[in-house]
């Protein structure tokens, strides 16, 4: 099943190219909640609600193309993101798992506009990622049992500011609008193998990310188990699985960035930068090569884009 929010945060089941309003099926108690509380509550009560949702899904709907899709989780209690977490196409040993927190206030709707902040980053990057949606409260769960706590999956863009002194942490990752996700949540039963999904991204018409989750270092079950050993996970929490950096690139004013994940869907966002900063419109080979080379040689020099920005430096 595909679950979405649209227009005034109306819950919907997605069938083909239609959105079917299921607000009556979920009931008044859920619809009286604040918009950002509705989907987590649907997720927490999904087993009870599923028969009513399946029945409601047989009715007519409205075209997806004519609706305003909302981020399916407008304000999750937590967004956890894996650092790196891909072999980058190498045959190298598994590295320790690491996560960072991204602000829930960074969430952006599909079709929205990423606003690049005034802070003088060296560059702003896109990262196309698969995100896990937690289905029920999880604390210290085993890896063997972890997928039973997963509700489903969604597409996630981890927009990143480089050179602010915290490239894989809160500062570089948490500006408002830096966490677009959607276009909906696909329940776990429709994704038989999350470790075998194609992930693609385009910047305007230029191909960027094009990789498979089979290259993932720490799979979803391990991410959930590890995260739950540190902080109790709640229904609707997001864990983004990281990215393969080999087709990473800059984003800048006026561009449209599109993500697509096999079996889930696709959506686009616009990029706006009031300062109109410019970078070469191409794959960032320095970043791609660094992330690959450091797997075999930890002494690989950090590229300039990841170093703290020098006072007075300018963009092209």
Show the helix and strand layout:
Elements: E1 2-6, E2 10-15, E3 18-21, H1 23-26, H2 28-31, H3 35-44, H4 46-56, E4 62-63, E5 69-70, E6 79-82, E7 99-102, E8 107-108, E9 113-115, E10 123-125, E11 128-134, E12 150-157, E13 160-162, H5 170-173, E14 179-187, E15 198-203, E16 206-212, H6 220-228, E17 238-240, E18 256-261, E19 265-272, H7 285-296
Architecture overview:
The chain folds into 2 domains: 2-70, no CATH class; 79-306, Fumarylacetoacetate hydrolase, domain 2, CATH 3.90.850. The protein has 316 residues and is of the alpha+beta class. The strands form 3 sheets. Strands 1, 2, 3, 4, 5, 6, 7, 8, 11, 12, 14 and 17 form a 12-stranded mixed sheet that branches. The chain has a 5-stranded mixed sheet with strand order 9-19-18-15-16, with no helix packed on it. Strands 10-13 form a two-stranded antiparallel sheet. It has helices spanning 23-26, 28-31, 35-44, 46-56, 170-173, 220-228, 285-296, and strands spanning 2-6, 10-15, 18-21, 62-63, 69-70, 79-82, 99-102, 107-108, 113-115, 123-125, 128-134, 150-157, 160-162, 179-187, 198-203, 206-212, 238-240, 256-261, 265-272. The relative contact order is 0.19.
> Could you name the CATH homologous superfamily of the largest domain?
Fumarylacetoacetase-like, C-terminal domain
Tell me the number of strands: 19
Let me know the average pLDDT. Answer: 96
Number of helices: 7
Radius of gyration, whole Å:
19 Å
What gap, in angstroms, lies between the N and C termini? Answer: 46 Å
Shape: globular
Number of domains: 2
Query: In CATH's first tier, which class of the largest domain applies?
Result: Alpha Beta
Find the CATH topology of the largest domain: Fumarylacetoacetate hydrolase, domain 2
Helical amount: 10-25%
Largest beta-sheet characterization: 12 strands, mixed
Order of helices and strands: EEEHHHHEEEEEEEEEEHEEEHEEEH
Percentage of residues in DSSP E strands: 25-35%
Query: pLDDT under 50 segments (min length 5)?
Result: 311-316
At CATH level 2, the architecture of the largest domain is Alpha-Beta Complex
Counting helices, strands and paired strands, the structural category is alpha+beta
